[in-house]
Amino acid sequence: MDDLEERIKQGRGESPADRVLSGGRVFDLITGDFIEGDVAICGQTIVGVAAGYVGKEVIDVTGLTLVPGFIDTHLHIESSLVTPIEFDRCVAPRGITTAICDPHEIANVVGVEGIRWFQEASEHMIIDLKVQLSSCVPSTNMETSGAEILASELKSLLGHPSAIGLAEFMNYPGVINRTPDVMAKLALFQGDHIDGHCPQLTGRDLNAYIAAGIRTEHEATTEAEAREKLQKGLRVLIREGSVSKDLISLQPLLSERTSPYMCLCTDDRNPLDIDEYGHLDYMIRELIARGTPPLAAYRSASLSGAEAFGLKDRGLIAPGLRADIVALSDLSACVVHSVFCAGELVQEAAFADPSVLPDIGRHTVTVAPLVERDFYIRGSSAQTPVIGIIEGKIITDYLTEYIPSTGGDQRPDSSRDLARISVIERHGKNGNIGNGFVRGFSLKAGAIASTVCHDHHNIVCVGVNYLDMATAVHRLGEIEGGFVVVHNGIVLAELPLPIAGLMSDQPFEVVRARLEDLRNAAKSLGVDLEEPFLQLAFLALPVIPALKITDHGLVDVKQFKLIDLEEA
Question: Which terminus has fewer CB within 10 Å in the chain: N or C?
Fold first, then answer.
C-alpha cells in the first residue's frame, strides 16, 4: 500500500519523483502524436507524462525521442551461442527490454533441467526474460533427442515468475490429428498463452490448429500466408533471424491498420549479425526504410507484442506501466542513445557476473570413431532426393537428381554442387547415422560440422570428403560440441560450445571473433552462403518443409514420413 500511495503522490507531483527524464518527447503509440513534457518514474513504474516534474534524480534527454522498450516476441537464446547472462549484455543496450524465449534447444539435450536453468537465469538479468515452457521435446518421433518432456513434467515447471505459457507448438500434424501426448499438453495450457508454429498450413487444417487455442505464429514466409493467418485471428510475428529472413516478404502487410496484430521477433540470430547489424533495432530501421510508417514499426516492436502475450504492464510510455524506455537520437534510423529497463539506466556495470549460473550440459557429445563407409549411401535410384537450400529461408526445396552408384556408394559431386549431408546421433543412445545429399553450399573440398542441429541437436556434417567429415565429427567430441571446419584432415577453424553443445562459456567478443574465423574458413572451401552454420543446423529440423534429414534419415516433411533411399 505504501508503494501504491507513493506512486500516486509522485504522479500528482506532491512529492519528487524518484527519476525524471527531462527535455525529450514521447512517441505515443496509440495516437501517433509526439508528446512534450517530462517522464516521471517511481521505482520501476512510470507515474507521469506530458507535464513538468521535480525529481530526486533528473536525466537530461533533450533532443531525444522516447519510445517503449522493444519486445522480442520469440527467440531461442541458445542460437546466439552465448549464455543468457551474456545475451543480456548484447541486446539490452540495443533497446531490448523484454525477450520471450523458448529454451527447447537446451531442453532437447538435457531435459527439464535446461528450462529450469533459463528460469534461474531470468532472475539475474537486466532485461525481463520470459521463459515459455517447451512444447515439443523432441519435435517429432523421427529424430533422437537427448531428452523427452511430457505434459506431467511441464506441469512441474509452472508457477515461476518468468512463466508466460506454452512455447511454439511445432508438431502441427500432432495437433490436427489429435495425438494423445499433444492433446495432454494443449489441455494443460487451455486458457493460457500457446505459441504457434505451422509453416505453410492453410485452409481447414489451419482452422483446426488455431481452434486448439493457439494465438501467435512466426513461420509465415509470404504475404499471402501471413494474411490468411491474420484473418483467422493469429497474431503474426515477423521474423528476421540469421537464416530465416522474412521481413522483406511481410513488410508490405505491416501498416498502421495491421500493426496492432503484427509483432517482431528474431527466432535465431547469431553474434555476428547482432554485432554487425543489430537486433530488433535493425528490423525497425529496415521496415521504415522500406516504407513502413514509423508508428506501425514501433508499435509492432513493443505495444503489439505486449498485447499479444498478455503483458498488460508494458508496451507504452504511460502512467502505471513498467518503465521500459528507449531514448532515440534518430527515430527513423532507430539510433539508440540510452535504455531504461524497469526504470534503471542500462550500464555495463549493471550486468550480472556470468558465474551466477551453475554449470549445465557439460560432456554431452558422445560419438564412436567413424570410417568412410559410415557415410555411404547404397541407394541405386535414378532419381535421388536432394535437399535444396533456399538462402535466407529455413524452408527447403525437395529436389531429385540422377546420382550413379560407384563401388556401392552414391558419392558427392562438387561439380554439381551435390555434397554429402550426415546427421550423427550424439546423445549416446543408439549411434544412428542418417545420410543424404544437399545442394546449395557450393563446397569444393573438406567438411563443416556442428552440434547446433535443430531441434534434436545431434551432429550435422556436410562435406565432399568422407575422411574430413570423420575428422570434423571426432573433433566435435573432443571440444564438447560446437562448430568445426576441416580440410585435408586439418582443423582450419573451430568454436567450442561446451554448454550442451550449444553455447559458449566465453564472452560475446570471443565468440564473435571465432565465428569470423569459421566463416572465412568455410569460404576457403568454396562455401558462399552468408550464414553457413545456422543454415546447416536447420536442415535437420523435420517440421519445416519440404525435405530435411535427421539421424533416422531423410524426411519428407509435407508427407511427415521418412524416406527409404533404396526405394526412393
Answer: N
